[in-house]
TrEMBL record:
<dbReference type="InterPro" id="IPR004203">
    <property type="entry name" value="Cyt_c_oxidase_su4_fam"/>
</dbReference>
<keyword id="KW-1133">Transmembrane helix</keyword>
<dbReference type="GO" id="GO:0005743">
    <property type="term" value="C:mitochondrial inner membrane"/>
</dbReference>
<protein>
    <submittedName>
        <fullName>Cox5</fullName>
    </submittedName>
</protein>
<keyword id="KW-0809">Transit peptide</keyword>
<dbReference type="InterPro" id="IPR036639">
    <property type="entry name" value="Cyt_c_oxidase_su4_sf"/>
</dbReference>
<keyword id="KW-0496">Mitochondrion</keyword>
<comment type="pathway">
    <text>Energy metabolism; oxidative phosphorylation.</text>
</comment>
<keyword id="KW-0560">Oxidoreductase</keyword>
<dbReference type="GO" id="GO:0016491">
    <property type="term" value="F:oxidoreductase activity"/>
</dbReference>
<feature type="transmembrane region" description="Helical">
    <location>
        <begin position="94"/>
        <end position="116"/>
    </location>
</feature>
<keyword id="KW-0472">Membrane</keyword>
<comment type="similarity">
    <text>Belongs to the cytochrome c oxidase IV family.</text>
</comment>
<keyword id="KW-0812">Transmembrane</keyword>
<keyword id="KW-0999">Mitochondrion inner membrane</keyword>
<dbReference type="GO" id="GO:0045277">
    <property type="term" value="C:respiratory chain complex IV"/>
</dbReference>
<dbReference type="Pfam" id="PF02936">
    <property type="entry name" value="COX4"/>
</dbReference>
Amino acid sequence: MFARSLQRQAIRFNSTVARSAPRTLSNAYIGKLESRWTTLPKEEQQTIIEELKSRMELPWQDLSVAEKKAAYYISFGEWGPRRPLYGPGDKSKIFWIVTGSVVGSIALFGALKLLAKPNPASLNREWQEKSDEYLKSKNANPFSGYSQIQ
């Protein structure tokens, strides 16, 4: 029984020792990754991500400064889904386009109102009163109209 436990410990010890530490990534390979990340091909991006992932399994004291910066940028940088919706100056363009559209629509409405023909005769107050009297005389709309008993 004692021999079995020693054998298990030896296997366990050997399995953890057999793992070698991944090689250090060069500064030329991962340096200034923020500026060139979007231009890299997808395959190269994936290889960098995988190599950094294997390096980050080590203690963080063993990582170089460039590796830490690259890992931070890949995890939290402004790329992919974290890319900003608007670039610099886009918000002011949107504001001025919306403002110009509102002012233009108000000007168009005013111009059409000035150029429109006068109101039809059926919209006069006298016309409406005469049509109400006519409907009363004919007892139109018995449910909610003029012939309902008050």
